[in-house]
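User: Hi! I'm working on a homework problem where we have to compare a predicted structure to a textbook description. Could you give me the structure for the chain below?
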Amino acid sequence: MDHRNIRHFRPFGSQARAFTLIELLVVIAIIAILAALLLPSLANGMKKATQAGCASNFRQAHIALQMFLDDHADYLPPSPENAPAGGGTPYGLWNGQDIGYSQSTTGDLVYYLANYLAYPSPSAIFRTAPVMLCPGFRRNVTASTTNLVVYYLSGTRSDDGTIQVGYFPFGYPDPVAGFTTAQLQPHKITQVQAAGPLSQIWYISDVDAVAYPGGWSAVAGVQMPLKPVHGSYRNHLYFDGHVGKKKVNPAGGL
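Assistant: Happy to help. Predicted structure tokens:
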């Protein structure tokens, strides 16, 4: 039998039925409800991923710091061998830290850790070290890779304030009222340990304008996030190498 000329018809009464307007609206409403239920979970998951990425970068920085200590008789950067000629003057690292470095950025931690992080040595070329940057920071500050305050360097206290280190562990490049020159020069990690458990003294923290109202955020050209990038917490890196979370004080400060 030749089937080429045979037509196929739908049985009587079986014509395709389109969705009614009410049915379409119900489907759209269900999709909207599911999206409303899932979006907070997705946002929370992204926030946790960002915080984990930041913590991972902090840990890599600490490993690099540990290698620096091993090579410099336990002295924190810049270490005595990098002291200015003549001696007797404060030298060290700034509190506000950047991810960029060159041969002239001797007040930034990354200047001393670059080689330990597998980056090129400081030179006349300005480079950046992305591992020193929180992923959340980059999403909130995208205008440039220069003049950033990406994290705060301290090492002078514990979270609860019960431990107060009476000097600048990493030194400081300028005179500070109330501190002697010796207190403004780099110290050994063993000296910091004598002040309190290394697991309780943090030395790097996330930075944002909430932490420093009227401070760096008010200085022309300085870039930092307007609010904490991890929501209600900031990551802190401690001298023993662990990363902890500290709840944000809405009134400002760390």
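For your comparison, note the following. The chain is about 25% helix and 10% strand. Residues 39-247 form one domain. Good luck with the assignment!
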